[in-house]
Amino acid sequence: MDSDNRRKDFRIDITLYFRWKALTVEETELLRRGMGSTLLKRKEVPSPIDEILKQTAPGSREEQLYRSLQLINNKLDFIIDNTFLESTESQQHQDKITELSGSGLKFLTHEKLSLGNFIKMNIIMPGTFQYQVELIVEVLRVERRGNISEVAAQIEEIDETAKDAIIKIVFQKQRQEIRREKQIQGGQIDG
User: What is the full per-residue pLDDT of the chain (191 aa) written as tens digits?
Assistant: First the structure.
């Protein structure tokens, strides 16, 4: 049986941009001791929008309004982080993801990585309320093709909200692919 058939999560081909940096020796040690979540940014103070959302009825117009405000707020946080705060991060690289699942991903890079390297990623996730997710992955495979490497990595540390955002985008893309296949096989069917 092919190893791709044994995967527990559905994988999609996708292009997402992200920034990453290799973990330091100290950060890697924290991850190995089960304290990897301390390396991810945490909201110290909950957003007032998040607090109001807890009190709204699911599916209501009020919830839709506050979800829209939440998305705008997350995008503004992203802009602020990338404009003012990211300049303090040294050794950051920017690349693109080509394949994604709830447990791992593949990406292309010009940088040299080795098996077992741990890297922290900030992925831009358009179409989700979170907009940007942060996670830590371990490099499982590196295939060099000229001056570019295709890197396969397994997610080692991620918070539940970020994982939900990834799973949501994977399911959306999977549904689109299924619809496209049905249209190709049977011609367009009006519903």
Answer: 334 444 567 788 888 888 899 999 999 999 999 999 888 876 555 677 777 888 889 899 998 888 888 778 777 776 666 666 554 455 678 888 999 998 999 999 999 999 999 999 988 887 666 678 899 999 999 999 899 999 999 999 998 888 988 988 888 888 888 888 888 887 655 54
Domains of the chain: 9-186 (2.40.10.220)
Report long-range pairs for 63-66 (Cβ below 8 Å, ≥24 apart).
Answer: none
Element (H, E) at 122: strand 118-125
Angstrom distance (rounded) from CA 151 to CA 110: 10
pTM over 0.70: yes
